[in-house]
Amino acid sequence: MIQRPRGTRDFLPDEMERRRHYESLLRETAQLYGFREVATPMFENTELFTTKSGPNIVDEIYSFQDKGGREISLRPELTAPVMRMFVNELSNAPRPLKLFYFGQCFRYERPQSGRYREFFQFGAEIIGAPTAETDAEAIALAEAMIKRLGLKNYVLRVGHIGILREKLSGLGVPQEGMAELLQKLDKKLYDEARSLMEAYDVSSEGINAVFEFTALSGGKDLLSRIEGEAGAYLRELFSILELYGVEAVQLDLGTVRGLDYYTGVVFEVEAPSLGAEKQVCGGGSYTLSELLGGESVFSTGFAIGFDRILLALEKEGANFSPQGLDAYVLATANETRPDSFRIVTMLRKAGLRADVDLMRRKLSKAMKQAAASRARYAVIVGARDLAENAGTVREMSSGEQRRVSLDELVSYLSA
């Protein structure tokens, strides 16, 4: 028996309905905030991802040569493809551009709980001006999505990577070493971060000052301790977030986002129920378009790990009940079977979710199938009822039955 590839999943009907339900909540929320959906190819030129993340990314992704000898990769994330699309297609569009997307991504890594080789991301980008309003809009949308999904226990952290970059640069860390060091600080690998800074002749006092800075975390009262333009920007940002109703937010200067293209405000959402791998959303402001051949333009955005946040909802005990059918139509005999097709067609045209017995079952077995389909009603088509232009309708939850005129069947089932 041929098995599915390691790190992938099959989604059966109930799970697929659950996923589509939560996906639709994310789409609706993005549209409420004025975002419009875009889509990019499942595979891109490998150069797109090496330009964004460096040549080592090839070891972590599905990369290959196509039949024309071109270097191609399955997309490991969606920000770079969306920004490539912006440079190619939308650079002259009115701004701000507010875009959202949902799709599959692929990484070649060891599968584990909440982490797969094929996974799904829902994200959003704002391409426009470097204002606190822009960052606030992205953070507010991210939190609104988390709330709309129904996640109760989460932590929203906001930081500013620009401050840390400036501190590290002032201590003598060269630009070419910044990305690796930020990645270590992002993952709280302080011993490795210390070794890197010592290699750049950073003093022990300087190293300890960096560690103390990244440990700063708390409420809005910490804002007064941040000086300069970054401090003023963060104070304005938190003021706007409060007006947006985003109050459960922490200032965390250890929120680093260890990627080269992040430049200013960064943020993360964590779900403590997931344990060590608890991040379900991450983002911030960045500059990426010029690396891809476009103009320098301010962008801010985020991505939600769809699989991981569904796992967090599951751990919190969130219940989802598949919708089921409005009606299951079944015939009592062969001679009434053609009428069952006519009736189910009438129900479907009226917008009701309806199915019909296709297996020529006996009445008792057809009723069991109606129950298995989670139908609210069974419509029993018998010769005696049809003679009076009617059918017998059984409410599946109570077992109560009544004869209903076929002319009133749609309104009866709809009510």
Average pLDDT taken over every residue = 93
Unreliable spans are none
Relevant CATH superfamily of the largest domain: Bira Bifunctional Protein, Domain 2
- CA radius of gyration is 28 Å
Strand order of the largest sheet: 1-5-6-12-11-10-7-9-8
Sheet/helix structural class: alpha+beta
- How many domain regions? 2
Helix content: 25-40%
Strand content: 15-25%
Distance between the termini: 47 Å
**CATH level 3 topology of the largest domain:** BirA Bifunctional Protein, domain 2
3D shape: elongated
Query: Helix segment count?
Result: 14
Biggest sheet statistics? 9 strands, mixed
For the secondary structure, the number of strands is 17
CATH class label of the largest domain = Alpha Beta
Relevant terms:
single chain, 415 residues, alpha+beta, BirA Bifunctional Protein, domain 2, 2 domains, nine-stranded mixed beta sheet, five-stranded mixed beta sheet, 39% helix, 23% strand
Molecular structure report:
The mean pLDDT is 93. The protein is built from 14 helices and 17 strands. The protein has helices at residues 13-32, 46-53, 79-90, 132-149, 161-170, 175-186, 190-199, 204-214, 228-243, 306-315, 337-349, 363-372, 383-387, 409-414; strands spanning 36-37, 43-45, 63-65, 71-74, 97-106, 118-128, 155-160, 217-218, 249-252, 262-270, 279-286, 298-305, 327-331, 354-356, 377-381, 390-395, 401-405. It has two domains: 13-315, Bira Bifunctional Protein, Domain 2 (BirA Bifunctional Protein, domain 2); 327-414, Anticodon-binding domain (Rossmann fold), CATH 3.40.50.800. By secondary structure, the protein is of the alpha+beta class. The longest helix has 20 residues, at 13-32.
